[in-house]
Specification:
alpha/beta; four-stranded mixed β-sheet; binds D-malate; D-Maltodextrin-Binding Protein, domain 2; globular; 49% helix
Length: 338
């Protein structure tokens, strides 16, 4: 080999090494905390996000899911993302509310009455405004929405079909004022507990029950420690994928767009997961021995007590009665007055 050929060959190797190292420096493997375990709606959103991110970035970027609260309680992950020590988290919106109160509108009882309502609200101007509020208030940006379905009450003691049946039960709720006040409106004082401690709380009998959607009850294997399910459907659970705003701002404009587009794909996949799987998962719960009942009178008693006591109390924190009416209008419902 001539000197020239050897020189060109070694230069080519050096150049390609430089390109590789530039590529590697930019390559990201985002760490995503996930509150729920495998088989959950949260996991479905996460998997769809990783797949879309890899495809849209031509394999340059990926992300790794850390399931089942391995990276801490859902509320802790918001703090960590805010300071940039965690890239992303998928968690229930009720666990974002303490950091950004206006998203509480999605946890007000009996506001969202269907998956279609949830899609309309999250993907329209209201969702955009709440996304901006969480950046401002909490230092995290919502980039995808998980639609997990209606939260259903479970307990280990007895069938519950009325507010009267609920009395005497010790029910775990997230550390969320709206949910605490909802149970108070139903006459009991619930026990606030982090999500990551809930299975153990149910198993040891510290609490008798909790509420979460079918897909979550199944993924978390709550049927091992809970027998009775009541379809109170008071909250349609929405569980965003958030990214640390600090991490987001460190990305190039092109990578930011890729992350946002991957988030859109994950949102669509989440709605599809719920449409495809919810009935099947309900059947799994029955096969595992759970008893599922509907409340008497179509939930009227639960609805009346919760909406009358809880909605007005939180108008201020969600941005005023006008905001409440904008949300109701968006989903074709009648306005409320003071
Ligand atoms: C909670 O109950 O704290 C959450 O809804 C749990 C979850 O993220 O699934």
């Amino acid at each position: 080999m001539s000197y020239f050929t050897r020189f060109m060959a070694s230069t080519a190797i050096a150049l390609s090494a430089t390109f590789i190292s530039v590529g590697m420096a930019d390559a990201k493997n985002f760490k995503i905390a996930v509150g729920d375990s495998g088989g959950s709606s949260q996991e479905a959103t996460g998997v769809a996000f990783v797949q879309a991110l890899e495809e849209l970035s031509g394999g340059a970027h990926t992300a790794t899911l850390f399931l089942n609260g391995q990276l801490g309680s859902e509320q802790d992950t918001v703090n960590e993302a805010a300071i940039g020590t965690l890239d992303m988290s998928i968690l229930a919106i009720n666990n974002v509310t303490p950091f950004s109160p206006t998203v509480g509108v999605f946890s007000l009882p009996y506001v969202i009455l269907s998956l279609e309502d949830a899609e309309k609200l999250t993907q329209g101007p209201i969702g955009q405004e709440l996304t901006e509020n969480t950046i401002e208030d909490a230092g995290v940006r919502i980039i995808a929405w998980t639609y997990t379905g209606f939260r259903r009450l479970t307990n280990s003691k007895k069938p519950v079909t009325s507010v009267a049946d609920l009395q005497g039960l010790v029910i775990r709720v997230p550390k969320n004022e709206i949910m605490i006040d909802t149970y108070k409106a139903w006459g009991i004082s619930p026990t606030p507990m982090a999500w990551s401690e809930t299975f153990a709380g149910l198993q040891t009998g510290v609490v008798d029950g909790q509420d979460n959607p079918y897909t979550t009850i199944n993924a978390m294997k709550f049927y091992e420690v809970q027998k009775y399910v009541t379809n109170i459907r008071y909250i349609f659970s929405i569980e965003p994928l958030i990214i640390s705003e600090q991490v987001f701002q460190e990305l190039s404009a092109e990578d930011q767009q890729t992350v946002l587009d991957a988030g859109k794909a994950a949102t669509a996949a989440s709605a599809q997961f719920l449409r495809d799987k919810e009935a099947e998962i309900k059947q799994i719960l029955l096969d595992e021995g759970m008893e599922i009942s509907d409340p008497e009178n179509n939930e009227e008693e639960f609805i009346k007590l919760a909406t009358e006591a809880v909605w007005p109390k939180f108008y201020d924190s969600i941005g005023g009665i006008e905001k409440m009416n904008a949300v109701l209008a968006e989903i074709g419902r009648a306005p409320v007055s003071e």
